[in-house]
Write a structure and sequence with these properties.
transcription regulation, RNA_pol_sigma-70-like, transcription, mainly alpha, sigma factor, RNA_pol_sigma_r3/r4-like
Length: about 180
């Protein structure tokens, strides 16, 4: 079944059709949530909120955009809502660079990967929200610029500018982590 058939079935209350439809795009929505929130716990909350909102609002889906674009929009909004809620409380993820126990003989590749992932997450968190959303949707959700433009309510040229500026800012923010 294609997306349109599954959406039609969902509108009749078919939970299995929604599970299949959501399953097709769940991984991309998860990556969007993870990159925006910066940790798996918040990403899980955002993904759950995304899927719940998608099911509840499916009757409002007009079909102007593709389903996965609509779902990504919901995922971004859910992830940003989680981030905003988190900012109002103290988080265990907010550290000043001290990451706990140092191992005597750490595996360099794993350690380097963790350091790199952490540096990218911190750098993404420092970007303006519009830039962060644009770069996450482009790089992690692999959405085309036209879909990102539709999501953000701007032109494709604006999306290209935001992504270009986000990449420049990320390069600047990540330079110390890359060249210690």
């Amino acid at each position: 079944m294609d997306d349109a058939d599954l959406i039609a079935a969902c509108r009749t209350g078919d939970h299995h059709a929604f599970a299949e439809l959501a399953g097709r795009y769940r991984t991309n929505a998860w990556h969007v949530c993870l990159q925006i929130t910066g940790n798996t716990h918040d990403a899980e909350d955002a993904l759950q909120d995304t899927l719940t909102a998608a099911w509840q609002n499916l009757p409002k889906f007009r079909g102007d955009a593709r389903f996965h674009t609509w779902l990504h929009r919901i995922a971004v909004n859910a992830a940003l809502a989680v981030v905003r809620r988190r900012k109002t409380t103290d988080s265990l993820d907010d550290t000043d660079g001290d990451y706990g126990i140092l191992l005597e003989d750490p595996a360099p590749r794993f350690d380097e990967q963790i350091t790199t992932i952490d540096a990218v997450r911190r750098a993404l968190a420092q970007l303006p929200e519009d830039f962060r959303v644009a770069i996450v949707l482009a790089e992690f959700a692999s959405l085309p610029y036209a879909d990102i433009a539709e999501h953000q309510g701007v032109t494709v040229a604006t999306v290209k500018t935001r992504i270009h500026r986000a990449r420049k800012q990320l390069a600047t923010l990540l330079a110390p982590a890359i060249d210690p």
